[in-house]
Amino acid sequence: MTIRILVADDEALLRMAFSTILDAQPDMEAVGEAADGDEAVRLTRELRPDVVLMDVRMPGTDGIEATRRLTDVSPGSKVLILTTFDLDAYAFAGLAAGACGFLLKNTRPEELLTAIRNVAAGDAVLAPRITRRLLDDLRAQLPHRSRPDHHDERLSRLSTRERDVLVKVGSGLSNAEIAADLSLAEATVKGHVGRILQKLGLRDRIQAVVFAYDSRLVHPA
Which residues sit opposite 8 in a β-bridge? Predict the structure, then answer.
């Protein structure tokens, strides 16, 4: 299956570079380029890409607002934010707007390609440098947050296998990596993740990561 990608960046040279890298992959296709947020929303509505590579700072409508709007017009399109700015505010705002990931533009090409594949598969992707700081901020967003020195009773709702999967999610593994680690089919892992979110009352994979830390299933490195 080919991953269809829209590139949104106000710098023409960067758009061309990203598109060239993407089109060189056998499983990817750059289906369009947008120079600003408004164009990104319009093209997303027209093209329905699987993934949108979104710059943050663009003229007119910025990448954060564009992300908020295009996730409404095309819920199936996953947004991966790329920026030169290693700022918590951008990462948090982007994820709050509906983005599935946040990477810096100095990320190596092979890491970017892996991130695109992971986001297209339903995983969340965060730049390692901001993950720890972002987790601290996101803790406050968890519903019914438990005290860190107490066992969270919601864990009793999970089966042993679901706990195993949650530990892997909390450790930052993608569905494919979890499947390989636990000798499961990737579709089975995806089903487990969906049930985990439902049973724990969590919105998305990011909240599942925070829950895994707060409930001490996973410990900071």
Answer: 34, 54
